[in-house]
Request: fold
Amino acid sequence: MIDAILHFPAAAQIPSSLIGESGAPTLGEPQAVSAAGERLHYVRLPPNQLDEWRPHVTVLAESPYTGTGTADRVYQQIQDDTEKLALYESVYNTAPREVRDGEGGTMTITPPFKFGMLAESMLPVPKSVSSRQGMQQLIIAGLDEQVESAIEGISDVTQRKLTKAWFLRATEWERDNPQFIGLIHELGLTDQQADDHIRAASKL
Reply:
């Protein structure tokens, strides 16, 4: 499953197969709608279903669903991209605003950045993934080019050789393998991030 935030322009041409009886996209809550009729939808879909929407919407952010923390990663993608952020805020205004306080005065409120998210639960961590899955997830995370220097940075000569041999020859990456744990730490990742790496890799 993929968590994603989709942007629909006001005059989006959506095929009838993706439109419900109400005339709205066949996507549920959460959603945000602007006065001009633009929409944002937070969705969790299988990759093939998300691909059906791609030609008709702008996918502002997407990430494999790995349980708790997935929405944070999705929203961070938008915050890190000025163009996507501008499109997002054209629908969902996050600017502080003055509202009446009910006592004759006003107060300033700042809407939360997230217009909504789907329920998340902590998924179990697979005991292992294939070396292909583990390496592909390093590439997705942008860490693949740091592996060689990370291994060379292991101060203990024996552990450095063991980690290099494991990395080059292992067919599986076991979560509790000492060489995997050592490499992850050398890459600057926490134990929680190591769990997330294995969860995400298992989906590839």
Q: What stands out?
A: The beta strands are 2-8, 31-33, 39-45, 58-64, 97-100, 106-109, 128-130, 172-174. The first strand starts at residue 2 and ends at 8. The radius of gyration is 22 Å.
